[in-house]
């Protein structure tokens, strides 16, 4: 089966919007890699994430804000021949992006980020109380580079 490379920005953004989870990869100063799954929001080439104020990820990012983000749409198992293992594939779009985490401090920008994250998962509108907004850590990642591949295309059967 074919693997397609997508470079069209609209296709890439559509793929990101179809994903439920963003895997955030970072590297500690001793070179140890650390990857965590996170919920996210997306708008105009910026990925918005949120967390508590402390933890392993925060202490790594304060020293090294470089991240690699990975997104994957729900895979659908496809095959060309049911008895041929190597003809099986997962039809899915996958996006990888690189950037640097900036912790947003501006109140209105934090509110915007929280709304974008919620909009990614729900059609509802939400109110956020001030202490909650002040307490949350907002991570902004402007994507410096992004690649998108679609796997498992052109199957004969599903
Ligand atoms: C689908 C999904 C969505 C999530 N969305 C968010 C989100 O939007 N915001 C958010 O803050 N968190 C989210 N989480 C949790 C997130 O993956 C981390 O666990 C969390 O952010 C704490 O990270 P930390 O580095 O501060 O961990 P710490 O609390 O400092 O972790 C201590 C240790 O626990 C282990 N650990 C931490 N996280 C995980 C993990 N996910 N899986 C296995 N072991 C772990 C590691 O060994 C780490 O060294 C999500 C998890 C899932 C599964």
Structural class: alpha+beta
Q: Quote the average pLDDT.
A: 96
How many extended strands? 10
Cα gyration radius (Å): 18 Å
Helices and strands, in order, run as: EHEEEEHEEEHHEE
CATH overall fold name: Pnp Oxidase, Chain A
Ligands bound here? flavin-adenine dinucleotide
How big a fraction of the residues is strand? 35-45%
Low-pLDDT ranges: none
Which term fits the overall shape? globular
Write a brief caption for the model.
The protein is α+β, with helices and mostly antiparallel strands and 158 residues long. It has four helices and ten strands, in the order βαββββαβββααββ.
What is the fold's blueprint, element by element?
Elements: E1 2-6, H1 9-18, E2 22-27, E3 33-38, E4 41-43, E5 46-51, H2 56-63, E6 66-72, E7 76-79, E8 88-104, H3 107-121, H4 130-135, E9 137-142, E10 145-153
Antiparallel strand pairs: 1-10, 2-3, 2-6, 4-5, 5-9, 6-8, 7-8, 8-9, 8-10
Q: Could you characterize the architecture of this molecule?
A:
The chain is α+β, with helices and mostly antiparallel strands. The chain starts with a strand and ends in a 5-residue tail after the last strand. The protein has helices at 9-18, 56-63, 107-121, 130-135, and strands at residues 2-6, 22-27, 33-38, 41-43, 46-51, 66-72, 76-79, 88-104, 137-142, 145-153. Strands 1, 2, 3, 4, 5, 6, 7, 8, 9 and 10 form a ten-stranded antiparallel β-sheet that branches. It has four helices and ten strands; from the N terminus they run E-H-E-E-E-E-H-E-E-E-H-H-E-E. The radius of gyration is 18 Å and the shape is globular. Helices cover 25% and strands 44% of the residues. A hairpin with a 5-residue loop joins strand 2 and strand 3. The chain has a single domain, classed as Pnp Oxidase, Chain A (Roll), CATH 2.30.110.10. Bound molecules: flavin-adenine dinucleotide (FAD). Flavin-adenine dinucleotide is lined by residues 21, 36-39, 50-51, 55-57.
